[in-house]
Amino acid sequence: MTAAATGFAGPRRGSLRGRLASPVLLLLPAGLFLGFIYLLPVIDLVRLSVSGPSWSSFFERVFSVPLYWDSLVRTMQISLTVATLCLLLGYPTALLIRRSSGITRILVTAAVILPYFIAILIRTYAWMVLLGRNGPVNKLLTGLGLLSEPAQLLFSRGTVLLGMTAVLLPIMVLSIYSSVSRLDAALPRAAQASGAGPIATFWRIMLPLTLPGMGAGFLLVFVAALGFFITPTLLGGPGDQMFAMHIVQQADFINSEGFLQALAVVLLVITLLFVGVAGHFLGFEFIWGGGKAAGPAAKAAGAGAATPRRSLLSGLADRIGWPVLRLLGRLGPAWGRWTVLVLAGAVIATLIVPILVVMVISFSSASYLTFPPPGFSLRWYEKFFSDPNWMDAFRHSAVIAAASAVISVLLGASAAMGIVRSEIRGKSVIMLLLVSPVIVPPVVLGLSLYGLFLRFDLVGSVWGLASAHAIGGIPLVVIIVAAALQGVDRRLEQAAALHGASPLTVFRTVTLPAIAPGLAAAGFFAFLHSFDELVLSLFLSSAQLKTLPLMLWADINYQLNPVLAVVSSLEVLLVVIGLALAGPVLARTRAGA
Amino acid sequence: MVTELASLAEPSADARMSGAARTQGAIGAGITLRDVVKNYGDFRAADRISLDIRPGEFITLLGPSGSGKTTLLNLIAGFQKLDGGEMLVDGAPIDHVPTHKRGFGMVFQSYALFPTMTVAQNVAFPLRMAGIDRATAERRVAETLEIMRLSEHAAKTPAQMSGGQQQRVAIARAIVRRPRIVLMDEPLSALDRRLRESIQIEIRELHRAIGSTILFVTHDQGEALTMSDRIAVMDAGRIVQIGTPVDIYRHPRNRFVASFVGESNLIEAEIVQRRGATMALRNRAGYVFEADAGHGIEVGRATVLVRPERIAIADGPGPHAMPVTVTSALFLGEILRIEARADSGETLLIRCMDAAGRSLPAAGERLHVSWGAADCWVLA
Question: Which residues form the ABC transporter domain (chain B) (predicted)?
Answer without folding.
Answer: 31-261
